[in-house]
Amino acid sequence: MKNIILSLLFLSVFSIQIHASVRTNSYNILLEIFPENQSINVQANIKISIDPENIDSLVFYLHKEFSIKEIKSDDNISYDFKTEESSPYFWMPDARPLWIKLENNKEKDINVQIVYQGSIKDLKWKTTNMITESWIELGNYSAWFPYNPDYGEFISSVNLEIDSSYLVTGMGQIQKSGNAWKIEQLKPASDIVIIASKDLKTFYNEDHSKSIRLDYVIFNEQNANETIQDAKFIVELYKNWFKPSPEVQFTIVVVPPFPNRGSYHRKNFVALLQPEPGVNISFHLIAHEIAHEWWNSAPTDNFEDWLNESFAEYSSLMAIRDQFGIDRFEEWIQYKEFSSRESPPILQPNTNTRGQTSTLYDKGPLILYNLEKRIGRIKFLEFLRELLNQNIKSTDDLLNLLEGITSKEIRAYFENELLK
Ligand SMILES: [Zn+2]
User: Fold this and answer.
1) Where along the chain do the CATH 1.10.390.10 domains lie?
2) Cβ atoms of 36 and 121 closer than 8 Å
3) Considering only Cβ atoms within 10 Å of each terminal Cβ, which end of the chain, N or C, has fewer?
4) CA–centroid distance, residue 164 to ligand 1 (Å)
């Protein structure tokens, strides 16, 4: 049981494997949510770029309980929603393939409109996405919108209609206009997250830059303030270490304490699980999830996910070292040494499956710690920056880069650590 809970604690980012010939550019969605019967009505307008020479069909993934009302395009199309097939995506277990055949398309840019409705009741990630009267949380875990992770990142605009007693938050900019809510995402991202509750309260950081927004239901104000301060500190630290990026804005949603669920990161957004009364959200959890703003580009369905998870986790330990000092950091190292004693190696010959929790979150960070000790903190930071600069997504490329900035010996040493 502990393992199940642990593995849910860090629900991951989605990987973006860009398909050479199809790209989703934008979504324009009209969404109605009916909390009382756990259902939605959707009209999704999707702009897609394709290579018409090589592509004559599209596939999106959509929740199995939906029924398609209509699909339209500039071109003649036919479609097939294969609800009997299974999902190829670990993180979207309830999704089913919706095949759209383009009959005679010669255009590079096409528009597809998909109209569908239905309930979202049967969910494998039960409490991570849901529609209930007290809490609504929709994202790609539930496949509430037609999505294919292979088609890349996109911008989005959602017009939401919901009973006027609900307040709304989510990824991107949120605005209420009249009876509807507009949720707009102008930076390309891989998800559309919408959260609603009648009891939502919103807090901004005090400096009025509004760079961090925090929404909660049963948090208290003092804890909300501390969490915002922690997040601000961590963002600045990572910007300094990893990649100076333009102003990073964050929405933090403190999710009520539903059982068996975890926290997750999306572009400029984190959902963090409410802690028990009397304690605040841990610095460690905030630092791990925010680190995914940088560590998110490797595949999440196979062993390469250590490039996301172990790096995010070690980043959080580095942040702990900076904020609380070396003694606290070393306690964490001892803790990880103990909990990774039985962990399988990061690299296992003849298997491509996702690593165990202790491999990803305990063993991987320890290997990075030992590398840092071996090559020194300055070189190690250079290594991290270069991984990000070069957008490294595979262990092979990582080893080549490491050899380039250190030596053959260090590469051999590190490769051996990954196999142990
Ligand atoms: Zn993570």
Assistant:
1) 303-419
2) no
3) N
4) 35
CATH for the stretch 202-291? 3.30.2010.30
Could you give the residue range(s) of every CATH 2.60.40.1730 domain in the chain? 22-155
Q: What is the pLDDT of residues 267-299, one digit of tens each?
A: 999 999 999 888 999 999 999 999 999 999 999
Residue 293 Cα to ligand 1 middle (Å): 10
Compute, in angstroms, the gap from residue 7 CA to the centroid of ligand 1.
Answer: 10
Q: Is the pTM higher than 0.85?
A: yes
Ligand 1 centroid to 292 CA: how many Å? 7
104-142 residue pLDDT tens: 889 999 999 999 999 999 888 878 999 999 999 999 999
Tell me where in the chain the CATH 3.30.2010.30 domain(s) lie.
Answer: 202-291
Domain 303-419 bears CATH identifier 1.10.390.10: yes
Q: How far is the CA of 322 from the centre of ligand 1 (A)?
A: 20
Compute the distance from residue 36 Cα to the ligand 1 centre, in Å: 33
| Residue 310 CA, ligand 1 centroid: distance in Å | 8
Q: Could you tell me the distance, in angstroms and rounded to a whole number, from the CA of residue 204 to the centre of ligand 1?
A: 25
Q: How many angstroms does the Cα of residue 13 sit away from the middle of ligand 1?
A: 7
Sign of torsion over alpha carbons 302, 308, 312, 315: positive
How many whole angstroms from 264 Cα to the centroid of ligand 1?
Answer: 7
Q: From the CA of 75, how far away is ligand 1's center (Å)?
A: 41
Query: What is 22-155's CATH topology?
Result: Immunoglobulin-like (2.60.40)
Query: ∠ at Cα 64 (61, 65), nearest 5°?
Result: 135
Q: How far is the CA of 378 from the centre of ligand 1 (A)?
A: 25
Instruction: State the distance from the centre of ligand 1 to the C-alpha of 206, rounded, in angstroms.
Output: 28
